[in-house]
Amino acid sequence: MPKPKPQLPLFGLMAVIALFLLPEACIGRNTNKDCGSTMCGNVNISYPFRLTTQPSNCGDHRFELECDNNNHTNLVMKYGRFYVQNISYDICTVKFSPNRSQNISCDTMQVMDANLSKDDNCSLPRYSFHVDNSCKGPYTLGATSVMFLVNCSEPMNSSSYINASRCLTISSYFYFLDSKTRLENFSESCTIDALVPIMVDNISGMSTSDIYKTLLLGFDLEIYGPFLDYCRKETEKPFQSM
């Protein structure tokens, strides 16, 4: 009597089928992979950064960038779109306690409001940039302060209000206000359009032209990607030991 053929258990059969039909199910093992450098315009895109056009297992999705049709590298966030002008890749030593330190990536990315243009004198910095300085990251502002872009229904005669309009507007008046402006100095006829990063300590005494020259230089974002996981582990330890 011939021996019966060994039967593949149903669970095993389903697993084999899944491997053939859903190969991407195994991609999770190889996420955040260093796939080497690529270029968008003159910007070097290396790990942990990635472009949206790269395979899904390349780079860290927290640091995803777009390369548009004009070869501009874009950082797209919920607050707006920023042109990436340069990325510097560095290693820093972070001291978490007197006896504990670790070398981590401390890359810096120079970005500029994508609404600004060197050729369009009517362009305004429309995008706010909000950062989380906790372990949630992944970006924090470098040596950068912020200023208010306000939209007023009438002209302001105070020296605190620096004209932000480089061309005539009929219905609105745009001004820059330093971030340290006291609440009582805000006019009720003005609303805040954006909180704009700028690479100066304060804008008091600056001309409209000087402010725009500074804005076109962009501002620095410090990148704490590989640090985030370590940071979270460190902050969780006190709670795990309770």
Task: Return the domain count.
Answer: 2
**Helix/strand order, N-terminal first:** HEEEEEEEEEEEEEEHEH
Radius of gyration: 25 Å
Number of strands: 15
Portion of residues in beta strands equals: 25-35%
Order of the strands making up the biggest sheet? 3-4-5-6-9-15-10
Fraction of residues in H or I helices? 10-25%
Distance between the termini: 66 Å
Distinct helical segment count: 3
Mean pLDDT reading? 78
Instruction: Classify the secondary structure makeup into a structural class.
Output: alpha+beta
Q: Please describe the biggest sheet, giving its number of strands, its sense, and whether it closes into a barrel.
A: 7 strands, mixed
- Spans where pLDDT lies below 50 across 5 or more residues: 15-29, 235-242
Keywords: Membrane, Signal, Transmembrane, Transmembrane helix
Protein name: Wall-associated receptor kinase galacturonan-binding domain-containing protein
GO cellular component, one term: membrane
Signal peptide: 1-28
Topology of this protein?
Layout: H1 10-21, E1 38-40, E2 43-45, E3 50-51, E4 64-67, E5 73-77, E6 80-88, E7 91-97, E8 100-105, E9 108-113, E10 139-141, E11 145-152, E12 162-163, E13 173-178, E14 190-198, H2 208-215, E15 219-223, H3 225-240
Parallel strand pairs: 3-4
Antiparallel strand pairs: 1-2, 4-5, 5-6, 6-9, 7-8, 9-15, 10-15, 11-13, 11-14, 12-13
Characterise this structure.
By secondary structure, this protein is α+β, with helices and mostly antiparallel strands. It folds into two domains: 9-71, no CATH class; 84-240, no CATH class. The chain is 15% helix and 32% strand. It contains three helices and 15 strands. It has helices spanning 10-21, 208-215, 225-240; strands spanning 38-40, 43-45, 50-51, 64-67, 73-77, 80-88, 91-97, 100-105, 108-113, 139-141, 145-152, 162-163, 173-178, 190-198, 219-223. The strands form four sheets. The chain has a seven-stranded mixed β-sheet with strand order 3-4-5-6-9-15-10, with no helix packed on it. The model is unreliable at 15-29 and 235-242 (pLDDT under 50). Keywords: Membrane, Signal, Transmembrane, Transmembrane helix.
